[in-house]
């Protein structure tokens, strides 16, 4: 599991470093890492470093300073370097002087000879001839979307890009992109990942992220934002041990679907069946249909005679009327962990007295999309991590907020994010599959916060496999999928995770 740290946490750590190591030394380390990884990218894409042309986009602060010092390193390796200064008066003085001494060319990005978009002739020409662009426009101190000149330069970049610390135009805290932004092939960051690398579009804009050690990591606090990688999920996924039987691996109860919406029942029970080797019980009016799809499921018509379970997955398709409310109440009273999804969330939003039924010692997982979140607690807003964290605390639940980046907040403030490169899971019924996965993992005794993280990861991978994998003829383009295809790919996803 990797951590991610906010700009404030990183700045505090930097200040600690500066008590023993002078600031310019730390900056030179950062720049050296940018140059080493940038040179590797340049050699790969342009065949060599010496004789190639590197363009630096240089902003007003430390990020631009890193880029200028990286330019010095590129000169040492024989590359031509042109620095386009966005704020010539504020460009890092020592970095500028060093690059000049090293034979680099420094130009004012805005002139002379500015075109109608405000870009100077030298800057425009340099960008056209670039073999590699180093993005040092803005880093940790970025605020808002890129200013017009920076945005214009970014829009003209055609060469491969190495971003310093963060791709400029990506919000360091939320990963949001509101306007033009750098699309990096590679981002070299320092000490640890930032939220901007793992959240929202930021995870895509960052390209491959390299974390360079510049002495900062040792001073960072325990993270409260985490990213699971495939190996974590694979290692934690419950599989039968020699001494296990169907009960010892956890029995999950699924209460989903109705006569009107039987599909939710089939999808949620199906994913629970495939997630673990534990037993699956189904309770609801779609029992016959569930049995015909999944003969291994013990299905009954009513939750009151469903039998013993270790966890409940409740909600998709149960409706928001009186019968749905009683189903949810029964699950909450059971003293078992409950994954409450879809209609369950609406029910809890409409009738907060349902919370009273809850056994305070049993975990509750809520899995809203933005609309359900709004019913429960108002607009999500731009900072999805903060929103999820706040609601997890308020209701003492594990909150899985669906979206392009799945955010899983625990009541103690820890947050897991699952960056997703593709939006293939965004299809009707996909949430029902996720609910079944979470329910099965809860029944297997997996910590609810991790269970959500594992399930989100497997779910995204299953969607990807369904769109691109063997079932799709290993088609590199991909095609839209339905939730049934996603469901069929769950075993392949688990297998791939366990193999990684
Ligand atoms: N401290 C150190 O020694 C080390 C620091 N390190 C490096 O320094 C970076 C942090 O440096 P930083 O704090 O100087 O700010 P940074 O992110 O470069 O922003 C600079 C200025 O940009 C402007 N600006 C803001 N928003 C903007 C926008 N949307 N569009 C355009 N411009 C915008 C705004 O200036 P303004 O124009 O408002 O005066 C702001 O002050 C960090 O990411 C890492 O790379 C590493 O070397 C390790 C050692
Ligand atoms: K940058």
From TrEMBL:
<feature type="binding site">
    <location>
        <position position="63"/>
    </location>
    <ligand>
        <name>K(+)</name>
    </ligand>
</feature>
<protein>
    <recommendedName>
        <fullName>Bifunctional NAD(P)H-hydrate repair enzyme</fullName>
        <ecNumber>4.2.1.136</ecNumber>
        <ecNumber>5.1.99.6</ecNumber>
    </recommendedName>
</protein>
<keyword id="KW-0456">Lyase</keyword>
<feature type="binding site">
    <location>
        <position position="135"/>
    </location>
    <ligand>
        <name>K(+)</name>
    </ligand>
</feature>
<feature type="binding site">
    <location>
        <position position="431"/>
    </location>
    <ligand>
        <name>AMP</name>
    </ligand>
</feature>
<keyword id="KW-0547">Nucleotide-binding</keyword>
<dbReference type="InterPro" id="IPR030677">
    <property type="entry name" value="Nnr"/>
</dbReference>
<comment type="subunit">
    <text>Homotetramer.</text>
</comment>
<dbReference type="InterPro" id="IPR004443">
    <property type="entry name" value="YjeF_N_dom"/>
</dbReference>
<keyword id="KW-0520">NAD</keyword>
<feature type="binding site">
    <location>
        <position position="168"/>
    </location>
    <ligand>
        <name>K(+)</name>
    </ligand>
</feature>
<feature type="binding site">
    <location>
        <position position="432"/>
    </location>
    <ligand>
        <name>(6S)-NADPHX</name>
    </ligand>
</feature>
<comment type="similarity">
    <text>Belongs to the NnrE/AIBP family.</text>
</comment>
<keyword id="KW-0413">Isomerase</keyword>
<dbReference type="Pfam" id="PF03853">
    <property type="entry name" value="YjeF_N"/>
</dbReference>
<keyword id="KW-0479">Metal-binding</keyword>
<feature type="binding site">
    <location>
        <position position="264"/>
    </location>
    <ligand>
        <name>(6S)-NADPHX</name>
    </ligand>
</feature>
<keyword id="KW-0511">Multifunctional enzyme</keyword>
<comment type="function">
    <text>Bifunctional enzyme that catalyzes the epimerization of the S- and R-forms of NAD(P)HX and the dehydration of the S-form of NAD(P)HX at the expense of ADP, which is converted to AMP. This allows the repair of both epimers of NAD(P)HX, a damaged form of NAD(P)H that is a result of enzymatic or heat-dependent hydration.</text>
</comment>
<feature type="binding site">
    <location>
        <position position="317"/>
    </location>
    <ligand>
        <name>(6S)-NADPHX</name>
    </ligand>
</feature>
<feature type="domain" description="YjeF N-terminal">
    <location>
        <begin position="10"/>
        <end position="222"/>
    </location>
</feature>
<feature type="binding site">
    <location>
        <begin position="139"/>
        <end position="145"/>
    </location>
    <ligand>
        <name>(6S)-NADPHX</name>
    </ligand>
</feature>
<feature type="domain" description="YjeF C-terminal">
    <location>
        <begin position="229"/>
        <end position="497"/>
    </location>
</feature>
<feature type="binding site">
    <location>
        <position position="165"/>
    </location>
    <ligand>
        <name>(6S)-NADPHX</name>
    </ligand>
</feature>
<feature type="binding site">
    <location>
        <begin position="62"/>
        <end position="66"/>
    </location>
    <ligand>
        <name>(6S)-NADPHX</name>
    </ligand>
</feature>
<dbReference type="InterPro" id="IPR029056">
    <property type="entry name" value="Ribokinase-like"/>
</dbReference>
<feature type="binding site">
    <location>
        <begin position="402"/>
        <end position="406"/>
    </location>
    <ligand>
        <name>AMP</name>
    </ligand>
</feature>
<dbReference type="InterPro" id="IPR017953">
    <property type="entry name" value="Carbohydrate_kinase_pred_CS"/>
</dbReference>
<dbReference type="InterPro" id="IPR036652">
    <property type="entry name" value="YjeF_N_dom_sf"/>
</dbReference>
<keyword id="KW-0521">NADP</keyword>
<dbReference type="Pfam" id="PF01256">
    <property type="entry name" value="Carb_kinase"/>
</dbReference>
<comment type="function">
    <text>Catalyzes the dehydration of the S-form of NAD(P)HX at the expense of ADP, which is converted to AMP. Together with NAD(P)HX epimerase, which catalyzes the epimerization of the S- and R-forms, the enzyme allows the repair of both epimers of NAD(P)HX, a damaged form of NAD(P)H that is a result of enzymatic or heat-dependent hydration.</text>
</comment>
<keyword id="KW-0067">ATP-binding</keyword>
<comment type="similarity">
    <text>In the N-terminal section; belongs to the NnrE/AIBP family.</text>
</comment>
<dbReference type="InterPro" id="IPR000631">
    <property type="entry name" value="CARKD"/>
</dbReference>
<keyword id="KW-0630">Potassium</keyword>
<feature type="binding site">
    <location>
        <position position="369"/>
    </location>
    <ligand>
        <name>(6S)-NADPHX</name>
    </ligand>
</feature>
């Amino acid at each position: 599991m990797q951590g991610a740290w906010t700009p404030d946490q990183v700045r505090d750590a930097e200040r600690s470093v500066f008590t023993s190591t002078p600031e310019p030394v730390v900056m030179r380390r950062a720049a050296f890492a940018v140059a080493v990884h940038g040179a590797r990218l340049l050699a790969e894409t342009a065949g060599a470093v010496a004789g190639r042309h590197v363009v630096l986009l240089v902003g007003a602060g430390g990020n631009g300073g890193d880029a200028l010092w990286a330019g010095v390193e590129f000169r040492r390796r024989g590359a031509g370097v042109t620095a386009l200064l966005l704020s010539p008066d504020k460009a890092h003085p020592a970095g500028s002087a060093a690059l000049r001494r090293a034979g680099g060319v420094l130009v004012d990005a805005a002139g002379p000879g500015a075109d109608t978009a405000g870009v100077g002739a030298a800057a425009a020409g340099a960008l056209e001839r670039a073999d590699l662009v180093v993005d040092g426009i803005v880093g940790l101190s970025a605020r808002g979307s890129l200013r017009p000149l920076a945005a214009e330069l970014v829009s003209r970049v055609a060469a491969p890009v190495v971003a310093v610390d963060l791709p400029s135009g990506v919000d360091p805290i939320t990963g949001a992109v509101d306007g033009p932004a750098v699309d990096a092939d590679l981002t070299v960051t320092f000490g640890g990942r930032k939220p901007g690398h793992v959240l929202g579009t930021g995870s895509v804009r960052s390209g491959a992220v390299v974390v360079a050690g510049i002495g900062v990591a040792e001073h960072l606090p325990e993270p409260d934002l985490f990213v699971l990688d495939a190996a974590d999920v694979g290692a934690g996924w419950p599989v039968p041990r020699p001494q296990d039987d169907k009960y010892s691996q956890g029995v999950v109860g699924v209460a989903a679907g109705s006569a009107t919406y039987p599909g939710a029942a089939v999808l949620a029970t199906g994913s629970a069946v495939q997630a673990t080797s534990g037993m699956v019980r189904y309770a609801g009016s779609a029992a016959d249909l569930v049995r015909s799809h999944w003969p291994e499921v013990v299905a009954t018509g009513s939750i009151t005679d469903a039998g013993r379970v270790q966890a409940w997955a409740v909600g998709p398709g149960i409706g928001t009327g009186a019968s749905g409310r009683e189903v949810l109440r029964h699950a909450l009273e059971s003293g078992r962990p409950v994954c409450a999804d879809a209609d369950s969330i609406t029910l809890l939003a409409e009738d907060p007295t349902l919370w009273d039924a809850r056994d305070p010692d049993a975990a509750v997982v809520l899995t809203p999309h933005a609309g359900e979140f709004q019913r429960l607690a108002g607009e999500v807003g731009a900072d999805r991590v903060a929103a999820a964290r706040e609601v997890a605390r308020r209701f003492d639940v594990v909150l899985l907020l669906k979206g392009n980046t799945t955010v899983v907040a625990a009541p103690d403030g820890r947050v897991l994010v699952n960056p997703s490169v593709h939006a293939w899971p965004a299809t009707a019924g996909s949430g029902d599959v996720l609910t079944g996965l979470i329910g099965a993992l809860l029944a297997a005794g997996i910590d609810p916060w991790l269970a959500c993280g594992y399930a989100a990861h497997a779910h995204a991978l299953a969607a990807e496999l369904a769109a691109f994998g063997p079932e799709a003829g290993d088609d590199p383009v991909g095609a839209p999928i339905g939730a049934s295809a996603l469901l069929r790919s769950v075993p392949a996803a688990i297998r791939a995770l366990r193999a990684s």
